[in-house]
User: What shape does this take?
Amino acid sequence: MTRAAVAATADARTVRLRHLTKQFGPVRAVDDLTIDVLPGRVTGFLGPNGAGKTTTLRMLLGLVRPTSGTATIGDVPYGRLRRPATVVGAALEASSFHPGRTGLDHLRVYAPQAGVGDARAREVLDLVGLGPAGGRRVGGYSLGMRQRLALATTLLGDPPVLLLDEPSNGLDPEGIAWLRGFLRALAAEGRTVLVSSHVLSEVQQTVDDVVVIARGRLVHASSLDDLARLARPRVRASSPDGARLADLVARSGWTTAGPPARAADGALTVEVHDVPPAVVGAAAFAAGVELHELAGVGAGLEQLFLDLVDRPADVAGGAA
Amino acid sequence: MGAALRTEYRKVVTTRLWWVLLLVMVLYMAFLSAVMAWAVTQGAGAPAGGPGGPGGAGTGVDAVRSVYTIAVTFGYAFPLVVGTLAVTTEYRHRTITPTLLLEPRRDVVLAAKLAAGGVMGVLFGVVGTVAAAGAGALVLALLGEPTGLDEASTWGVLARSALALAVWAVVGVGLGTVLTNQVAAVVVILAFTQFLEPVLRLVLGLTSWGQDVSRYLPGAAGEAISGGSFYSDAAGVPLLPAWQGLLVLVGYALVLAALGRVTTLRRDVG
Assistant: This one.
């Protein structure tokens, strides 16, 4: 009984896209997206610029009509939510402000529709660290302050679902670190938090799950851990005797990542996949190849991300 | 709907434009009315020398009324602009996105904007009419002329003047939903109210069928609500009865709003 109740609440926070598609003239901006975004987790919604992230969010929020498919929050389309600000907080762009309005007044404008009073407006301003700037006109705000104000607006109605489009744009490193902790805390409270970004590294330390789209299509959806497992570690090795190193790589059957870098004096630097540095070192030692560099190169998560979003380009003939 | 109304009201009063426009309107109307009041007492105010149309502004109460309702004749662009900006600023500053996020029912958004426009319109109507009638009556009193303020019918004219201006603000909201580009909307308003309609009414006034048409122009309908009219006196064209003028002007507002509903407010917001 209790379990069922819990499941029902959790479900009310689940964002669900089913075969969501949007055609703009000849361009299929979003193509058959089917995704579940779960409560209690921060989900990164990733893809290069123009991948269809914003259009997807706008369809989910009832601003753009899908060509086909559905988008729901707890099985209810956004347009049918009563008092949506108490269910979903969404920030789509950091520029949706009247420059002549103060930060506090911006929040007061929307407070009636979120069903809250001025006290809550001040509270969310403080929450995002804008309290002292609340009386200033938004026209004088920096991009980072506008991002914070946009975030404050989403929090007005204390919604269980938060959808944030590129929320760290314009934030300084300190602001990004703050945002990270803030979003983690919101998810820890059981909220559904979706954060879009065009750079994986920007949200890598924030998200639990990743959804990657490219050219409107889903190319990957998993937990961040599962994505990381897909990342192929690389080893960089360089030797003054380039010919012998190249020979060793060929004989060992290692796959190289990108073309080797040849120096004028015959030195060679190669990167190989799927082999631990120790194995490369041992093989070089056994073969008597002098190594001047031997290093494991990152987890390659960003590279994996780029590979994921580039892959359809090969099929589509490089539309970008 | 109540929440949407409060939101729309707060949108207007949290920016500076509304009181700047109101202040300009007060000064402009007071000035025009003072000048007109002086002119009618000099007998020079007789654009009404015109071909003896009924209601021609000679002297007396009719002349006084065309002074007091000067806001409806020359000042209606102010509530019209205020109503229009309530919509166009949303598109200019892209606040239409949060607006539709907090109230996805677009009919409700439109209805709230029309209603809030009406409320602002009442403010502009009352203040604009008071400015015009106040300055006009002051000049008349100083010149020792009758002000007509002791007649109940004059107060009726003043009330209808405020009503006409209020409806103009609602027309503005409708116009804004059709023409969301702020610059284009303001240019169209100025061109139409300051040039096109006055010229049309004078030209149409030359023929009898033209007179019939010109009475249904929005400016003429607005003047019909209040009663007194500079242009209709000048052209010697009788206005519609007040209640018909009200129906016509409200009709303009509703047609524009309906047009905006099926165009602008149907579109994707991206």
In short: Confidence is low (pLDDT under 50) at residues 1-8, 312-320 of chain A. Residues 232-298 of chain A form a domain with the Alpha-Beta Plaits fold (CATH 3.30.70.120).
